[in-house]
Write a structure and sequence with these properties.
This protein is mostly helical and 490 residues long. It is 75% helix and 0% strand. It has helices at 2-14, 31-66, 68-80, 83-99, 101-110, 113-131, 137-152, 155-165, 171-197, 205-227, 240-251, 263-271, 273-301, 307-312, 315-335, 339-358, 363-390, 395-407, 411-417, 429-464. It is globular, with a radius of gyration of 23 Å.
Length: 490
Amino acid sequence: MTDNFDIEKKTTTHSDTISEKTIAGSDGVTFAEERKRDERKLVRKLDVVILPLTALLYLSAYLDRGNLGNARLQGLNELLGSDTNYEIVLTMFYVTYITFSIPGTLLAKKYRPDYIIAFGAFAWSCGAACMAASSSYAGIVVCRLLIGFGEAMFGQVTSFYYSLWYTKHELSKRLAAFIGMGVLAGAFSGLIAYGVAHINTTMDHWRILFLIEGLPSVLLAIAVFFFLPSRPKTSRYLNEEERTLAHTRMNAQSNERESGIDWRAVRYAFKQPTTYIVALMYSCTNLNLGSVNGFLPTIIKTLGYSNANAQLFSVPPYAVTLVVMYGLNYMSDRQQRRGYYLILAFAIGLVGWAILLGVAHNLHARYFATFCIVTSGYTVIPITMAWQSANSPSESQRAVRLGMLNTIGQALGILASFSFPKNEGPRYIKGVSINMAFSILGMFIATGMVLYYKRENSRRDAREGGRPAAGTKIDCTEHFDSSVGFRYTL
């Protein structure tokens, strides 16, 4: 009993106050074992609400964002007038998405992140629903701008929000479950579009598509406003004991005390070269995803399928992607290795684009290539988010660096909008070659960042006489990721 009491005494001086019930009792359960049991119970309770609500939002967001590729095959081009106008409409999403990504994450740091997420969801869902009523090219452009604005208050904001609740050992697989809804959206959008294409109605099929995928999102945004927990210290979803535990375990990773935005951390993040380098790497996969979201049904149609069947055959690549993506992210969490799995994911995409470039007549090989490019694009996203988050111990620094993933990281998504002009089908050599080149660049950057972080950790080990003992609390309030004791996740 004395030994267990000593453990309790040392631990409570090492972190915030924890209820005295965690002292080991007559059943022989140590403090550490009871603490782990309480943490597992807490995380399960968080998963019950946070994961379903945010995952459904992501499913909704990707349906609303990505259905333009299916709408194109269902007559939207007749309203837009030309392929060039379609490419411009694709681009408009990125204009507001890029512009408001960093302001969106900083607003989530300053105010309640759950409210910012709900506001963004309401904005994009209204934009998506209004596309069904649009009667002009200009109206479609305005709606796409609104969708981009709303999602800027959601995507990286949710990644930041997760980092307030989940430790770095829990984050990647939950981000994978979150991003996995985008994968399901890709599958569902094909199924929904296939079903809509067979509806016998005088109404344009693409308008029905936007209504079906837009209106439920409005109701979901309202539900998120009322039910998504706020922050560990203030959430009414948890009782007092659970709030203390949630705050304590997160405070062991990031002990930022200031309320609101720490502008020193913001300036520091903007000055860090790695903020931009990792964002450039993220941009490489967003070129891939922009190509997939805007043109996958078009690419599959080149294999000889009809418009409806092209949408139906876009489903299997997403189904396989969901399994592979979660498996790789699970292993990434377990091993606390991010860069190595990013290299693997980019390599999978490179294989896919290389097949599309080099194989002209083997339709089975070309269809297999679509599995590779979808898997690569979606797998990179949660691992990169988790990597950037783990290496940003300050909340304000993290908000900027996660926001920058979109500000720079979505830039190549604009290029994707113009990479597959119809007159270059069925091979689309330019679009495929561009994606192949940036897959190589993504692999190169991921490799370089692993080597840089590894060298920096070794340099700090030598300077500080080795790594801090496991469980040592690192004070990162003044020098952020340059603090003594901090080590980068590889």
